[in-house]
Design goal:
This protein is α/β, with parallel strands linked by helices. The relative contact order is 0.07. About 2% of the residues have low confidence.
Length: 682
């Protein structure tokens, strides 16, 4: 257990800057701790001493009786470094800096923040913040916060099982209030502000070890640390993250195709998928995932069966399945036969199963249909949809659904489309039955998708790992790169750099009478646009081609002309989340269609095949409309070999293989470019 756990386990809390002045922020934590029944010692710190709200105050933290588990610093930014020094002197392990006026205000504030963190680290003090609203434990009634949420008259304050951690304090506590309104039960809410020392991700990792924590929800503004992200994933606790900044470029602009296509946001998507962490797009989705995480049942697969009282709801649910990373179950013949005996003739027995509004007169339709779906081995998740049902009808439906959930061992999510006044007690009834409910089928399916994402087995590496290659020189040329690639078993065209026109003509003849000529010039990434490539050169044309390319100022590479086939792009680049592999359809189509897939290395078993399958144009590789299959397996093999080859490359770099020619007999790299830092090579 680290110092961070004081946010929810502190037996003593010092409020530095506490005051009795009505409306002052320094009064609120005192009010909240007293009002909500904190059982530990409260130590207000104010230079005037005396009492604050009936609690003895201390002129400085150094005078307060120890030990002090947690300090909440609520003084002006200029006084924060001194307060940090006092915390260190008093042996406080963790301080929350609520004060603003730091990096969020500009260079001067950033310098003050850096100085404050440096002092804390030198003294062994961890910091939350600055510029944050603090933290709350509903389970232990620790309220190191000034959030107005806890001044509300009727705020629920019961133990919970969900952890909310947010860089934005207002957004985090606002989301927590919406969770409480929905009947969800947060156990911990933490804001981390500027993340100057302890990050939001570190707090999530710490909460993952708390007994009784069933799900974690996070709002992040910074790209997360990959090691902490992996540790969080390894905890096994379901996690959903809302990361802002999707529309920003996010990474450094790159001259290569790979860098332009693999922005940090795309890479984060890929990393989270690999780690089994759900990514959501807004607060509603975050809370929808939380509702699914609260209950213990987890799906064994992505196959969904939909049972509905409304044909329209069933269609909407079926439409949403694919977009949520799920599959619509193919029901067994036995299930269809059984449902035919149950469902009215004007309903539907294929998935989605429409039991129609007849359920209002025969509530057993839900029970019997659910029994069939639960017994079908091809069903992993059930989504039950009903609309505009009121009072007793809802109660009957909930009874049937809860009975099914208890005995079936499969998650059941409910889409209840209708106003709350139709069945005011429905939410509480569903919650008591451990059935997460949503207002629309699409939201229920998104929550089911998040539940599957955090439940799916993590891929492992059991294959034989290939040879690692040395990092190329910063200005490595295409011939040098291809020599390296060949050493990893990656196919490249026959050819070499030639010294003069005569050698160029002789080599062209030896390569079959038609060859490719390329200018080899450091810094020239896109050779075709610069007139640095000649394709299909004959021995008779070789002298002129050589002289034209040599005039550009570099060497001339002569290679065999590869047979026609499909083209792919393959690239590797460094990123804040690790080394990233990108694959897509090659040539201009890559950027025009934006059809690419990413993984953070190393590749686990099956990752390469899954990357290829994610491409919208994957059918072209497998042979669409009667055309010949063109090397999907060979491309997968290349991806694995490249993953292994670059696994130890340090620093910032990009390797761009574009195009890779795909043929039924294999994959061959036609062009390669490399850059280290800001120094491109060609």
């Amino acid at each position: 257990m680290s110092a961070i756990s004081a946010l929810w386990n502190a037996d003593s809390i010092a409020v530095v800057g506490a005051t009795e002045r009505p409306g002052a922020l320094g009064r609120k934590p005192m009010d909240f701790l007293l009002r909500h029944g904190y059982k530990g010692r409260i130590l207000p710190v104010n230079p005037k001493g005396g009492e604050i709200l009936g609690v003895p105050a201390h002129a400085s933290l150094k005078e307060a009786p120890g030990p002090v588990d947690l300090a909440l610093i609520m003084v002006g930014a200029d006084r924060v470094p001194g307060a940090v020094d006092d915390c260190i002197a008093a042996g406080v392990p963790l301080a929350v800096i609520a004060s603003s006026g730091f990096a969020e205000t500009g260079p001067e504030g950033a310098a003050l923040q850096a100085e404050t963190v440096a002092r804390a680290r030198a003294g062994g003090l961890r910091l939350i913040g600055p510029n944050c609203i603090g933290a709350v434990s509903f389970n232990n009634r620790v309220l190191a916060t000034f959030s107005p949420l806890f001044g509300a008259e009727n705020v629920p304050f019961e133990p919970g099982t969900l952890g909310f951690v947010s860089q934005s304090g207002a957004l985090g506590f606002g989301a927590a209030s919406l969770a409480l309104q929905r009947g969800l039960r947060p156990g911990w809410v933490v804001s981390t502000g500027n993340d100057a020392d302890v990050t939001a991700l570190e707090v999530l990792r710490e909460l993952a070890g708390e007994p009784g924590c069933r799900g974690l929800l996070g709002y992040l503004e910074d790209v997360p640390d990959p090691d902490t992200l992996r540790a969080l994933s390894a905890s096994g606790t379901p996690v959903a993250l809302l990361k802002s900044g999707r529309t920003e470029a996010g990474g450094r602009a790159a001259a290569s195709h790979t860098g332009a296509l693999a922005t940090d946001d795309r890479v984060l998507d890929a990393a989270l998928r690999q780690l089994g962490i759900a990514r959501v797009d807004d607060i509603d989705e975050l809370l929808d995932a939380a509702a699914a995480f609260e209950f213990p049942l987890r799906p064994k697969g992505p196959r969904v069966a939909v049972v509905t009282t409304s044909g329209g709801s069933g269609i909407l649910a079926a439409d949403a399945v694919g977009d949520c990373g799920l599959e619509l179950s193919r029901l067994s013949e036995e299930s269809i036969e059984a449902l035919t005996e149950i469902v009215p003739p004007f309903g539907a027995v294929q998935n989605p199963v429409d039991i129609t509004a007849t359920v209002l007169s025969d509530p057993t339709l839900f029970d019997r249909s659910l029994d069939v779906l639960l017994a079908d081995d091809g069903v992993d998740i059930i989504v039950a949809c009903f609309c505009v049902m009121a009072g007793p009808d809802v109660e009957k439906a909930v009874t049937a659904l809860s009975k099914a959930a208890r005995k079936g061992g499969k998650p059941v999510l409910v889409a209840r489309t209708g106003a709350d006044f139709l069945a005011p007690d429905a939410t509480a009834m569903l919650r008591d039955a451990q059935l997460p409910d949503y207002p629309t089928p699409a939201r229920a399916l998104k929550a089911a998708g998040a539940l599957w994402q955090v439940s799916r087995p993590r891929p492992r590496i059991t294959r034989a790992v290939g040879a690692a290659l040395p990092l190329p020189a910063p200005r490595a040329t295409e011939p040098q790169l291809k020599q390296l690639l060949a050493g990893a078993g990656i196919a490249v065209p026959d050819g070499r750099v030639v010294r003069d026109a005569e050698e160029a003509a002789a080599l062209t003849a030896a390569l079959g009478g038609r060859a490719v000529f390329k200018a080899v010039l450091p810094g020239l990434l896109h050779k075709s646009e610069a007139g640095g490539v000649r394709v299909g050169v004959t021995p008779q044309e070789a002298r002129d081609a050589f002289q034209d390319l040599a005039a550009l100022g570099g060497d001339v590479l002569v290679e065999e002309l590869a047979a026609d086939g499909a083209e792919a792009l393959v690239g590797v680049r460094s990123s804040p989340l690790g080394t990233v592999l990108t694959v897509g359809l090659g040539g201009l189509f890559t950027e025009l269609l934006d059809d690419v897939a990413h993984r953070v290395l190393p590749l686990a078993d099956g990752d390469a095949e899954r990357m290829i399958a994610e491409l919208r144009g994957a059918a072209l590789l497998h042979g669409a409309r009667g055309t010949e299959a063109v090397g999907a397996d060979a491309l997968a093999g290349l991806l694995y070999r490249l993953s292994d080859a670059v696994r130890d490359w340090p620093g910032e770099f990009e390797l761009d293989l574009n195009p890779v020619r795909l043929r039924p007999d294999g994959a061959i790299v036609l062009d390669a470019a490399f850059s280290a830092g800001d120094r491109p090579a060609g």
